[in-house]
Amino acid sequence: MRQTIPLALLFFFISCCSTAQEQVVPESTDTIPPAKITLLFVGDLMQHKAQLDAARTDKGTYDYSPCFSLVKEQISGADIAIGNLEVPIGGKPYSGYPAFCAPDEYLYAIKEAGFNVLLTANNHCLDRGKKGLERTILMLDSLRIPYTGTYRNEEKRRQRYPLLIHKNGFRIALLNYTYDTNGVKPSSPNIVNYIDKKIMLQDIDTARTWQPDVIIACMHWGNEYQSLPSREQRQLADWLLEQGVTHIIGSHPHVIQPMELRTDSITGAQHAVVYSLGNFISNMSKVNTDGGLIFTLELEKDTTTSTSPQVRVQRCGYNFVWTARPNFTKEKNYVLYPTDSTSISKLPEAARNHLNIFVKNSRKLLHQHNIGIKENKK
User: Fold this and answer.
1) pTM, two decimal places
2) Looking at residue 223, which CATH number applies to its domain?
3) How far apart are CA 145 and CA 235, in angstroms?
4) What residues are paired with 299 via a beta bridge?
5) How many domains does the chain have?
6) What does the alpha-carbon distance between residue 152 and residue 254 come to, in Å, rounded to a whole number?
7) Is there a contact between 209 and 162 (Cβ–Cβ < 8 Å)?
8) Are 73 and 335 in contact (CB under 8 A)?
9) Where is the signal peptide (predicted)?
10) How far apart are CA 369 and CA 149, in angstroms?
11) Nearest to 272 by CA among 331, 318, 325, 326
């Protein structure tokens, strides 16, 4: 069904199965669509018990507004902002590790921060079983947040996967898979996207029939707390690119891993491969787990020179973000700090010391192992 939507809103199209009639929200015919789009990716949006306790108000509700206050401008400034929702929105009782469940207010705050798309295929998506998976989907739908990775049933998956996003004249196909769900299997008829080459190849082929400008695979993979990608990650990245995926964004290890901008020797096309963005927000305190990356990917295409314009990477880069925990700041809530923010000077010395350790370790790792991708500078 065609819908009339105010031009100030994002235009998203959640895809139907390849045999169904394609539903497209038409863009304005008054102006030429922009030839650029900026995609923003962050890692794991987690919710440990200490975060629940910190966000709880005297009225028994939850307030997460301070958490994203310093990153909201950057997130909302992107054309598309994508995060990994690594916690079910499963209803009471709420809980932290090992079986996560966050209140609805957490999802409200994530949307308010500017996130447009959330990934749901990860090892914690079944922490509250069938109820948690289905209620998470219900909440995402009620807030009109497009998502990808988990589904009520096979029919819903056929209708909605791969996720096809329309924005700024671009068509972006988004894939999402997880290595496991902590040994818990989805209850019938629920579907979780697992890393399975046979299924992934079918999904890539489906995506290609829609002729997207790019296909992006968001992978929940790798080994926890390992700062270098495993052999399996590298081999799977190679395979995905060989099958037609354009860019790969990874999560799960809870630490940052290196990234590469590969150039195809025949076509000259460039492919961003980010092995792990690390944590975005969490209560983790183990070395290198208290921060992560905001990765930005700017794409460009010249719509005036060809009936099938070539999309290219105009720019890609990253900046660090660090989670300030109340035990360091003496504030009530957790706050995400971009590590180049002037607000850092207001942090207590103990907090600044931990932030500086995270940044020093992360810069050393990425300077040594990154290929073709550098830190964004103000």
Assistant:
1) 0.90
2) 3.60.21.10
3) 32
4) 37, 313
5) 1
6) 28
7) no
8) no
9) 1-22
10) 30
11) 318
